[in-house]
Amino acid sequence: MFSYIHAILNSENPKYIVLQLLFIMAIIYLVIKWYQTLVKPFITQEGFHQNEAYIIKRNQDIYDDFYTEVYDELHDTEQRCQKELIQIIKTTEPSTQNSVFLDVGSGTGYTVSQLREAGYRAYGIDKSNAMVEHSEKKYPEAEFKCGDVAEPMNFESATFTHVLCSHFTIYHIEDKKTFFQNCYHWMKPNGYLILHLADRAEFDATMPIDEKANAWKPLQRLYGIRTTETNVEFADYTYKATYKFPSSNSAAAASAAAASATAATATAAYVVLTETFTDKQTQHIRQNEYTMSMESIDTILECAKKNGFLIHAKYESTKYGGKDKHQYMYILERPL
């Protein structure tokens, strides 16, 4: 049998090409299945149980006690933040004596805690009360504020040398003009505003956990296959996340624009992220739906420039440990 397979694989006869390809694909499939047996034991997050058969939460309502518990694993918070902070510190050269950081959309508080451990003064702000309470319990020595960055009175003028807006946070902010104006007001001269931006048409539209859970990921990236869906098996529930990119004149975009309180967002390029948690035992479903204002990189940078910022540096995420060449770190500077 082995000699027969060997003969087929080494044959130059055109009629064996299909068999050769099928054999190679079978080998790849077996390798992937073996890899999955190694990876899946690490996906052990538990905690999804609800009495209702179906619940849907939208936008800020997503961030409740349950989501704060699963957030870090879904978003690969620790590794992602560590890689970003190394690049930020390397580029901006902060000092523990003079530098003061603000993490916008501070989430579970990990970035703030890492900066504090490194000797810097660092603070977090997040719109979610559940996230802030979680952060305060986990890092009681750190300071977090529940608030909206659209409100200029959250901080005093010239407070921060660094403002961080990472991991798609900028796209959760509809009124970007006000955001940039407030950052300019809160920052010290020659301070740095760090933005995470992505190419809407090209970025890897899967959740960070997909790197660990999806055995096909290396091949998808190698051949430039863009997927917009993430599927993960947890201990007691399944998780699915899907990005949708409605056109500007679609019903979904029109509905989102109509719900907006500001005219500025009516022309925004909306992206809808839907997360579905299904309890394996009861089949009860929790669905999260978040609508993001994902304008082009050029549009966002132009808004920043009009409100006083200069581009200091730009890094493709692959330069600081990321895997997606269509996501970037922009370091903007507030001039004197």
Characterise this structure:
This protein folds into 3 domains: 2-40, no CATH class; 43-71 and 202-293, no CATH class; 76-200 and 296-333, Rossmann fold (3-Layer(aba) Sandwich). The chain is 35% helix and 25% strand. The chain has helices at residues 2-10, 17-39, 65-75, 77-92, 110-117, 129-138, 176-186, 210-213, 217-222, 251-259, 297-306, and strands at 54-58, 100-104, 121-126, 143-146, 160-165, 187-198, 229-233, 237-244, 270-279, 285-293, 310-316, 327-333. It has a 7-stranded mixed sheet with strand order 4-3-2-5-6-12-11, with helices on both faces. The protein is globular and about 75 Å long. The N and C termini lie far apart (76 Å).
- The CATH superfamily of the largest domain turns out to be Vaccinia Virus protein VP39
Low-confidence blocks of residues: 248-267
Instruction: State the helix count.
Output: 11
CATH topology of the largest domain: Rossmann fold
Query: In this structure, how is the largest beta sheet organized?
Result: 7 strands, mixed
CATH architecture of the largest domain: 3-Layer(aba) Sandwich
Helix content: 25-40%
- Number of individual domains: 3
